[in-house]
Each structure stands twice: as C-alpha cells, then as structure tokens.
Amino acid sequence: MTALNLINVTLNYPDGEGTMTALDAVNLSVHPGQFVSLVGPSGSGKSSLLAVAATLIKPTSGLVMIDGVDSTALTEKELATLRRDKVGIIFQQPNLLASLTAAEQLVITDHLRGTSLRTARVRAAELLELVGLGGSAQKRPHQLSGGQRQRVNIARALMAQPKVLLVDEPTAALDHDRSESIVRLLRDVCDEFNVATIMVTHDTEFVPLTDAVASMRDGVLTAPVPALPGVGVH
Ligand code: ADP
Ligand code: MG
C-alpha cells in the first residue's frame, strides 16, 4: 500500500477578485521507505504540496490518502488525530521551545498525545541517540548548533512513528557539510523507520541520496523519476 497518495489534487488560493492555482491536478504516490525529492522554482507550489499532504490545508478538489485513509473526508477532529499519529513535519526552522532541553522537546510532544512520561522519556533518549545527540539531551536550543537543532527537530517528528514524513528545505539555513549530514540522516531515518518521505530542496547536489525526484512548476508536478547519481535535475 502507498503511504501517501495525492490524487488529482488542485488547490486554489483567493487572489484579488479571482483565484490563483497553487496546485494543478497533482498526482503523487509515495511508498513506505521511499524518499522523494521535490524541486522547483520559488513560488511553484512546493510548500503548498507539503501543506496539503500534511492535511494542514484541504485541497479545493482531489483526494489526499494517508496510510489508506482519505483525509479529505474527515472532520477537523479526526484530521488532527490522523496528523498527530501518522504525519511527521519538519520545516526549515526547527521551532524549538527556548526553555526546554532537547529531551524535553520530544517528551512534551509525545506526552501531549497520551503517551506516558516514562515511555516518552525512553523513546526520546533512543531517538536523540539515533540522530547523534545522545550526549546533548540536556542541552537547550541556545546551547546547540543549527545542525544540532535540526536534528532535534527530526527526532521530534519521529516520536509518533509517522507513516509520512514531510520535510521543507531542511538545509536552507545550514552550511554544505551540515546540509549533507542532515540529508544523510533523513535517508537513514527513511530506511530505518520505513517512512514515506518527501523533501523539498534547493540543494540538487543531495538529490542522488534520495530515491526519486519530482519537479514542480506553476503548480504542475512532473512524475517522479529515479534520482540517479550524476543525473541533473534542472
Ligand atoms: P514554493 O514553496 O514552491 O515557493 P508555495 O507553495 O509557497 O511555493 O507558493 C505557491 C504559490 O501560492 C505562490 O504564488 C504563493 O504566492 C501562493 N501562496 C502560497 N501560500 C498562499 C496563501 N496562504 N494565500 C495565497 N497565496 C498563497
Ligand atoms: Mg516553499
């Protein structure tokens, strides 16, 4: 089964007297463990696609299937539950809470969804270890580098063991080496957790670390093609 399936998804935003089409009959399937890069010029609709896939925005028409469930047929409450349990979201800015330690950022998120504190703490420690921050669990955001903060963000998104991971320009604020290690970490996460992953990226250099690349232009998505080493994507 595909973990994420967008079927003929169109999204119109109000624009003055009329509307503008941010997503134009988009079709996309991502399987468990598949890592898809999404490239395209600024304003082409990449973030809109992630927001629709995350069920944060309901499309004007079309279906958004998450783990076999048509999210467009759900109530707001059901959607919130689906999103909480099945969807991990990682944006460019980690949005960590300044007063909390790395471990607490993860524990709070999980505890809010009903996990016991004890279980959440064990899981947080495991995930921080996995993202290479085992020794930094008690540090607060200002004591971490940009790359480390993004690692906390990734670990936090994995607390719910999501089926779908949506990542919007995770390396835009990082230098080359840190960017590469973040994309490599996402590759490992995708494999280890068997999560369907879409990453919006400007760094086409890292596309070969992913399985497939789809490109967006004026709201139209090309079908994903294999992301072979050395193959340009422009
Ligand atoms: P990208 O992530 O590729 O830069 P976006 O999805 O952010 O593209 O934007 C696609 C288009 O939709 C752009 O023209 C943008 O101005 C427009 N847009 C994005 N969000 C909104 C919104 N909330 N309201 C109206 N227009 C929007
Ligand atoms: Mg964007």
Task: Please outline the helices and strands.
Layout (H helix, E strand, L loop, with lengths): L3 E12 L2 E13 L4 E5 L6 H8 L7 E6 L2 E2 L5 H11 E4 L11 H11 L4 H14 L15 H13 L5 E5 L7 H18 L2 E5 L11 E6 L2 E2 L3 E2 L8
Parallel strand pairs: 3-8, 3-9, 6-7, 7-8
Antiparallel strand pairs: 1-2, 1-4, 4-5, 9-10, 9-11
Helix pairs in contact: 3-4, 3-5, 4-5, 5-6
Magnesium ion binds next to helix 1.
Major sheet size, sense and barrel closure: 7 strands, mixed
**CATH homologous superfamily classification:** P-loop containing nucleotide triphosphate hydrolases
Which structural class fits the helix and strand makeup? Answer: alpha/beta
Helix content: 25-40%
Radius of gyration: 17 Å
Which percent range describes the beta-strand content? 25-35%
Stated plainly, the CATH topology is called Rossmann fold
Q: Which ions, cofactors or small ligands are bound in this entry?
A: adenosine-5'-diphosphate, magnesium ion
Order of helices and strands: EEEHEEHEHHHEHEEEE
The global form is: globular
- Tell me the name of the CATH class: Alpha Beta
What's the number of structural domains? 1
Mean pLDDT: 94
Which architecture does the CATH hierarchy give at level 2?
3-Layer(aba) Sandwich
Distance between the termini: 31 Å
Number of helices, counting only DSSP H or I runs of 4 residues or more: 6
Q: How many beta-strand segments?
A: 11
